[in-house]
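User: Hey, quick favor. My workstation is busy. Could you predict this chain's structure for me?
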Amino acid sequence: MCEVGNLLKQTINDGGQADKIGCYMNKTLEANDYVVATVCDGTARIVGLDFPSGGDGGPDHIKFSCTASGGVFTSYSLWACSGGTQNEYISKTIGSDGSVSITSIGNFSDGGGSTGWHSVSASGELSSNNDGSYASKTITSSMRFIGDNNYTGQMTLEQAASSFVLSGFQTGTFSEGSFTNRMYSTGQLIENNTATDFDDYNIQNLAYGDGAASLILSATFGEDTFSMEEVQSWNGDTTEAEASNDYTVAAGAGTVPSVEAVSISFTGDAAYDCLGTEEASLTIPTAIATEDESNVCARFGLNHSWFDCYTETGDNGE
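Assistant: No problem, here it is.
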């Protein structure tokens, strides 16, 4: 239950990043006296970014284009650069029928020679009550990390109003061995939001309940090897394992994905050479410059607060 919970949180968090970036754009434009309804005419604009003291890690140069209706984004694309090198691309479109399409690509470096790439593609249908929730949503989140330890992973979340299916794989190598984890899980998704307006919706109010997962795990560590293939079920109220529940059969019957190659890069419309002339420099408002709860856009993310599975379970985090 614990590790599935972390993977579920991570994938939901990844799927919310486009909403968070859209919030950043909106608040930054407003703080710099740009009128969203005027600036979002589909024209590509290039600006510099100036972060206040205490804000770090953000881009210094972006290209963006957007369209809006009633002061609310209906689409946007953003290309972000730091030091003359592209490190992010995000695009989101909301159709008149409530359909949503999202693409996000990024890279990063830890400063010690290790690099990584991440990508998210998502599509879905907004609920008809305009509260910010989704009637359905599919998110595929992929990652590659290259360094002393290498890691590749991909998770696909099928999110419905009251249930989820999460499947994918993680594989990697490190100095003493390697591992491969594959799974198919399904369970109860609990919507605790009582918001009646998109501006009040908070994905941190989502929770998960009963569920089950079909797991295929293997690892090597020196001369030692480990393998496991089984279906595990859990009770969402007690957070304890149980022999079976309403999701056990579905988890056992689900197809556990195979490991596949993950390739991520800026290509086509996602690529930008970072050489455009800046028409202005925008100051990032303090309200969105930090990653704590004071950030007015924090409701679109889960703040990377994960379960400590070893402590929670007292064993191997199952």
